[in-house]
Design brief:
The protein is mostly beta strands. The chain has a single domain, classed as Maltoporin, Chain A, CATH 2.40.170. Helix content is 8%, strand content 59%. The strands form three sheets. The chain has a 22-stranded antiparallel beta barrel. A five-stranded mixed beta sheet has the order 1-6-7-4-5. Helix 1 runs parallel beside helix 3. The longest helix has 15 residues. It is globular, with a radius of gyration of 28 Å. It comes from Idiomarina loihiensis (strain ATCC BAA-735 / DSM 15497 / L2-TR). Keywords: Cell outer membrane, Membrane, Signal, TonB box, Transmembrane, Transmembrane beta strand, Transport. This is Outer membrane protein. Its main location: membrane.
Length: 848
């Protein structure tokens, strides 16, 4: 019964802002026995687990806004290695994947760059070049105590999101009583790569007496390490279809070999000298090292052709070999003080993120020309039809080797002060709150690109792929592949030269830029409670100063000019959030809020490339004058709790978005009348997104047999959106409507659990419908790129051996669901990838 009810609590905790009272109580004797047993188990194996579920339930139900909470023991339930994998099971959230692993989170159909991530109130810096979205696969789930997703934005939450804020909250020693430690070891296996993958994690915490104050100082430490190796089979066209013919222009087959290492550390100190005073330090370090070897076959036809047809063309065998390391660190130092009815919080925080990719082979190309005999077959999984010479290494000549050395860094520093006053009256109470925050963000990107060509002229004697080929043919599950290139042999050749002599000055300097962003913010709000009502009303003010530095290159004059741009902006962000307790079991929620997201750094970079191509004037550049995206949000919903049902809730939402950003060719517009092509980013007209989240949790009961052990949890989110893009055609401004990129019409989760005594089983499905991934051609909807609908199925099991030891098993991607992207229609492949199934065995020891 204990596991059955804690599992139901878990199901409730991940539903949309919904909680449930305990199920019908047992007889008085059974309750007494259960209470004693729960106390015993909490102190050993499940210490912190039952308590964490109760706190998640209480936090969501008492919240004035719409939030979701995941506690530490919820994350990793299905071997969700990272925060992103765990969050995808929350209503209204879906994940964008990389190599089959969750990386970025979408909230209510809005792209990851339109949502914010913070760590104990400090905005996290983003490690990926040019983006604001934080890649949450960098952060192991083991390092956190809880994650709170705010879908309504109150004035005390920093601006930076349209969809919502993901708040990562660290563990503290005071989350548990006294000394606590746990150790978990997992062994994973990926069937496609035939690799075993270890993972270990541990948590240690304790409280200590200081002076006369018992348990006033706490230390909590968490660590995690995972080494995961796998392969990916890929075939993609990249949208290279001529749909007027129709025919395929080129496609690429890729075989990935990937090793990913995740290392995470967290150290948190707390000192509580009295009930009214608290000092704390929160720290986080996470490293994500991604080593990737990609063998590719690029087939380019002389003319667009259909399936089973034949033509001449060129095949390029290409190698990319790189190690990319992303790091995120965050430190928060703060104090909370209470003086009668006054509450003061003072915090200073900093976050740093970096992405380091030192001296990688960005592309080593070996080419072979064909007068005839090239073709393809298949639809989603295209296969190459080619003569036998296409699989002979000696027939490929070395054409070009590109080496890149790239580093991106972003730092965020902030200090904030929050002051609150409680005004308590017999029939109502009001908390007045206000605060200020100053933050500085610095973003820089630097890349050096080296290109080597004409190898015979350089005195290189190895001029064919046979001189650099791997010892065996490349393993590729989608088609015959043949020989690959060896990175080691290529580096032996490259290292005989002075690499700096091959630096591409133009590409290197255009790719490098710096941006400084200073934000001053303040807010005032009142949290009012009277009778069955609770209302939060207030506004936030944010002022931004941004300065960017980059380079302008004129191809005709072959000159570089330093470029510096400045931007200033200010915004008021009001909000009103309410809840009404219709009864003890039913809550109505409503909110009006406003949000703001600043454009990505890649979009506002001060870089400009000007080219005169045989009289055609072309340019590509960033747009430092982009306006921030803003939104007005409406939310309304109802939650009902029932002892036998669990919970059922529905939440409707609407977002009116202004200044959404997209890439466009502005040639012919004012200022660019003489250009034949001018590609940059611009603000679009208004856009909107609306939808409905529905959640249902049910514990089967009334059968008085094994059927009562089943638990059901399902949530559905239905979303729709519309935006308008425009362009110049024959001097006329024309437009078309699109859905917002990354917005799926339907996302859904379904979990079926079976709990009895010391065994817990769970089968979970996650679904998202197709969505617009990118505009292939602004002027022609036929070339829009869509990600196909995706359904994954996962299974987990846990067995409690005794009070201190448990065993777990998980199977992920049971149906071997591929990743498929298409151009306009499903028959036109843009990308197809398969990852294989993964299995994990684990053991956990707690307070042994």
């Amino acid at each position: 019964m204990i596991m059955k009810k804690t599992y139901l609590a878990w199901l409730i905790a991940v539903s949309c802002g919904a909680t449930s009272p305990l199920m019908a109580q047992e007889t008085q004797d059974q309750s007494a026995d259960k209470t004693a047993e729960e106390k015993r188990i909490e102190e050993v194996l499940t210490i912190g687990y039952s308590d964490s579920i109760k706190r998640a339930v209480q936090e969501q139900r008492e919240s004035s806004g719409i939030i979701n909470v995941l506690k530490k023991d919820d994350m990793g339930k299905l071997q969700d290695d990272s925060v992103s994998d765990a969050l995808q099971r929350i209503p209204g959230l879906s994940v964008e994947r990389d190599q089959g692993e969750g990386r970025f989170i979408r909230i209510r159909g809005l792209a990851p760059d339109l949502n914010s991530v913070s760590y104990n109130g400090t905005s996290l810096a983003a490690p990926e070049a040019g983006r604001r979205a934080v890649a949450l696969d960098v952060i192991p789930a083991d390092l956190l105590e809880s994650v709170v997703v705010n879908k309504t934005l109150t004035p005390d939450i920093s601006a930076g999101s349209l969809g919502g804020n993901i708040e990562l909250q660290s563990m503290t020693a005071f989350d548990r009583e006294g000394s606590f430690y746990s150790f978990t070891a997992d062994v994973g296996y990926n069937e496609q790569a035939s690799e075993t993958n270890p993972k270990v994690s541990g948590v240690v915490s304790n409280t200590f007496d200081v002076g006369d104050k018992a348990d006033s100082f706490g230390i909590a430490f968490a660590g995690s390490y995972q080494d995961r190796s796998f392969t990916t089979d890929n075939v993609e066209t990249g949208g290279n279809w001529d749909l007027d013919e129709p025919g395929l222009e080129e496609f690429e087959q890729r075989a990935y070999s990937v090793t990913r290492e995740r290392t995470g550390l967290a150290l948190n100190l707390d000192y509580r000298p009295s009930d009214d005073s608290e000092f704390y330090l929160r720290s986080l370090y996470s490293e994500f090292a991604d080593t990737e070897i990609r063998q590719g076959i690029v087939t380019e036809f002389s003319d667009p052709i259909g399936a089973e047809a034949s033509a001449g063309g060129e095949i390029v065998r290409e190698l990319k070999d790189r190690k990319e390391t992303q790091e995120i660190t965050a430190i928060v130092l703060g104090t909370k003080q209470k003086f009668d009815d006054w509450h003061v919080t003072l915090e200073a925080g900093t976050s740093k993120a970096s992405e380091d990719q030192p001296f990688a082979i960005g592309g080593a190309k070996f080419t072979q020309e064909f007068d005839e005999g090239l073709g393809y077959s298949g639809l989603k999984r295209l296969q190459l039809n080619a003569p036998d010479t296409a699989y002979q290494a000696s027939e490929y000549e070395i054409d070009e080797v590109e080496v890149s050395d790239a580093y991106t860094e972003e730092t965020e520093k902030n200090v904030k002060l929050d002051v609150a006053y409680d005004w308590l009256q017999p029939s109502y109470q009001v908390t007045f709150k206000g605060g200020v925050k100053l933050s500085q963000r610095e973003n820089s990107a630097e890349e050096n690109i080296f290109i080597m060509k004409d190898f015979a002229d350089l005195g290189v004697t190895g001029l064919t792929l046979a001189d650099y080929e791997t010892s065996s043919n490349v393993e590729y599950g989608l088609d015959r592949f043949g020989p690959g290139a060896s990175a080691g042999k290529l580096w032996d050749m490259i290292n005989t030269f002075e690499l700096q002599n091959f630096r591409d000055e133009v590409e290197s300097r255009i790719a490098s830029y710096e941006i400084d962003e200073d934000i001053s913010a303040g807010y005032l709000m009142a949290d009012m409670g009277f009778g069955k009502w609770q209302v939060i009303a207030g506004a936030r003010y944010e002022h931004e100063e941004r300065e960017g530095r980059g380079n302008r290159y004129d191809d005709e004059l072959e000159t570089f000019t330093p470029v510096s741009d400045k931007f200033s902006d200010a915004n008021w962000l009001p909000s009103v959030v309410t809840r009404y307790d219709l009864s003890n079991d039913t809550i109505i929620r409503a909110a009006y809020s406003t949000g703001l997201v600043r454009p990505n750094f890649e979009q506002v970079r001060s870089s400009y490339y000007l080219e005169n191509d045989d009289g055609d004037l072309k340019a590509e550049f960033g747009n430092p004058d982009l306006e921030p995206l803003t939104t007005q949000n409406l939310d309304f919903g109802i939650e009902h709790y029932d002892e036998t049902l669990g919970v059922i809730s529905a939440m409707a939402f609407y977002k009116d978005i202004k200044n959404f950003v997209y890439e466009a060719d502005v040639a012919g517009r004012p200022g660019y009348e003489n250009f034949d092509e001018a590609v940059t980013y611009i603000n679009g007209d208004d856009a909107y997104v609306y939808g409905l989240e529905v959640n249902f949790v049910h514990q089967v009961s009334g059968f008085n047999n094994w059927l009562d052990n089943f638990l059901i949890n399902t949530n559905l989110t239905f979303t729709d959106s519309e935006a308008t893009v425009d362009w110049i055609d024959d001097g006329q401004l024309v437009s078309r409507d699109i859905t917002l990129p990354s917005q799926s019409d339907t996302t859904a989760n379904f979990a079926l659990g079976y709990e009895v005594y010391d065994v817990s089983l769970r089968l979970a499905a996650n679904y998202k419908s197709k969505y617009l991934a990118e505009l292939g051609d602004v002027e022609d909807s036929r070339y829009d790129i869509y990600e196909d609908d995706n359904l994954t199925l996962d299974f987990s099991a846990k067995w409690l051996i005794n009070d201190h030891v448990s065993l777990s098993f998980a199977a992920n991607n049971i149906t071997d669901e591929p990743y498929y992207v298409y151009t306009g229609q499903k028959r036109y492949n843009a990308q197809y990838e398969s990852y294989g199934r993964s299995f994990t065995l684990g053991v956990q020891l707690i307070n042994w």
